[in-house]
Each structure stands twice: as structure tokens, then as C-alpha cells.
Amino acid sequence: MxxxxxxxxxxxxxxxxxxxFKRDYDVRLNPxxxxxxxxxxxxxxxxxxxxxxxxxxxxxxAVIEGLDKSVRIIATFSxxxxxxxxxxxxxxxxxxxxxxxxxxxxxxDMTMLLLLAxxxxxxxxxxxxxxxxxxxxxxxxxxGIGCQxxxxxxxxxxxxxxxxxxxxxxxxxxxxYHDQNPLPPAKTEGAIFHADVEEMLPFCDYLxxxxxxxxxxxxxxxxxxxxxxxxGAVVVNTARGPVIDDEALIAALxxxxxxxxGLDVFEGEPKLHPxxxxxxxxxxxxxxxxxTLDTRNAMGFRALDNLDAFFKGQAPRDxxx
Length: 321
Ligand code: DGY
Description:
- This protein is α/β, with parallel strands linked by helices and about 325 residues long.
- The chain has 2 domains: about 5-100 and about 295-310, Rossmann fold; about 105-285, Rossmann fold.
- The protein is built from 11 helices and 12 strands.
- It has helices at about 15-25, 40-45, 60-65, 85-90, 105-120, 120-130, 160-170, 195-200, 225-230, 245-255, 295-310; strands spanning about 5-10, 25-30, 50-55, 75, 95, 150-155, 175-180, 190-195, 205-210, 235, 260-265, 280-285.
- The chain has a 7-stranded parallel β-sheet. Strands 2-1-3-4-5 form a 5-stranded parallel β-sheet.
- Strand 4 (about 75), helix 4 (about 85-90) and strand 5 (about 95) form a beta-alpha-beta unit.
- The longest helix is centred in the last third of the chain and has 19 residues, at about 295-310.
- The protein is globular and about 70 Å long.
- About 40% of the residues are buried.
- (2R)-2,3-dihydroxypropanoic acid binds near residues 55, 78, 79, 80 and 289.
């Protein structure tokens, strides 16, 4: 019987996913969910056929260049792959795969949670209760912002943007979107297409970000663009933190130009700009968009399907490099 391919899995994965890894591969797991240094990744990859990473553990050029020649595939347990340096992987002939589709619904659900929590001041409500400061129902207490008849701008109308449009429509939003090209109306819930995102921003009572992180989208939401949003807009981000210029958003949350933000992702995770922490109008979560067991299992199985195909000599379904 042929030896099983050797894999180094950089993060602890759900039980059912690890069980399949153990069944089908000669695998080094990470049961303590240790955060590896770059040097450790390089050292522990000696003799491995592949690496399984996630957005938590960047595999940048310095790591890829140091990898043992045995490493032929990097599978990321995520749809986003900005943490893997594709050009460096390509230069070494290393295949890279991701896990699209299976986390669309969970992430779109989380987008709605953040949108509503920000707009309806859920954090402040929680604080009042937990700090024993609630004086009872009051007609003017914690007045938030509704959805009915408001305009929601979706920046990036890929799978997750479309899933957000499907959820937002029944809430009564008028939908707008920007993407590189218009999509068939059946995929957009009738959202109005803006070829120029600058032109969409003044229509965004709510703006939700669903683009990948690329050199073009880095710091997309800067002070200039925030100024184009209507006063009192709500900003939601479940995509990638660096798409937002934190200093600019924090200033806008402080001034009230942006009434509220719902953020699941941050530049420099797991650290985040400390300016967010003191803001009652920022509803913050630690990158939980895909965090349901079904979704995380599906992500793991999708990564495994790609690895299985690769080691059988077939083209992995989700090859990104
Ligand atoms: C991804 O998959 O890219 C998310 O950020 C983690 O679920």
C-alpha cells in the first residue's frame, strides 16, 4: 500500500475534520492550537507534502521560500487567501486551494447580525443591563436606526454580497451594489448597479463590505470616501479588516458622521486598533463570520476534497494558484 501523503495542519480543526485527516493522511495536527512562528512553520514542514493553513497563520513569501521542496500544496481553511503569497507559491510550483461557497450563508447571517446590532445599539443595551444601569423602558432610550426604506450599499457582489442582498431585501432595504461588472438581476434582488463606487457612496444609509483584500481594496474606506456617505450611515465589515482605514472610521464614529459600525474583521488581527474599544457605537466581534459547526466542518471537508484530488493527481476544484 502506498504511503499516505504527509500534511502539516497549522491550526486546530473541528473534530470531524481532524478525524478525516487522521484517517486519510499521515498528519501532524495542532491539538493545542499553538500559534506557530514562521521559523517553526519552516522547520516543521520538513518532509511534508502539504500544509493546511487558515487566515490566522499567514504563509508569506519568506516562509514559502524556506519550505522544504517536498511541500507541493498549501490548502487554506478559508475562502479568503490574502494571507498566502500566491506569487511566491507559484514561483515554487506550489498549488494553493481555498474553501469557497460553504461559508457564504454563515457569513451573510453574521453580516445581518452586525448590521442590526450596530444600527439598534445592541452593545449599549447590553452594557446598561450588565452594569445594572437600566432604569426601565423609556420612550427615548437608545433610539436606533431602522431598515425599512433605507438604502443598503453592497461593496462586492460576489457570493456573500448576493447572500446579503437576499437577506436584506425582506427587511425593506432599497439595495444598491458595486462590483466590477453588473450581474444578472436574478442574482441581485433588483439592487441598483453602480459602475463607479464613488457614485454609490452617497446612496449608502448602510454600507456593507464584501470584497476580497487586494492592493486595490486595501484602505478602500478612507476619510474621503466616508465623507461621501450620508451623515448617520452604518458601516458593516465581514470581509477583511484592512479594507477599512481604521483611523478614518474611528474619527467618523466619534464625530457621528458614521452613526454605527458592525465589525467582524480587523487590520492586524488578533490585535485591533484600540480606538474601537472605547466606542459604544462600534459593535465588535472576533472574526466569527463562518463560526458555526456545520460551516466549519464543511470548510474542512472542502479543504480535504481539494487535497484528496491533488494527491490523486487530479485538479483540485478550488485551486487559486
Ligand atoms: C474566510 O474564510 O476567509 C473567513 O475570513 C474565515 O471564515
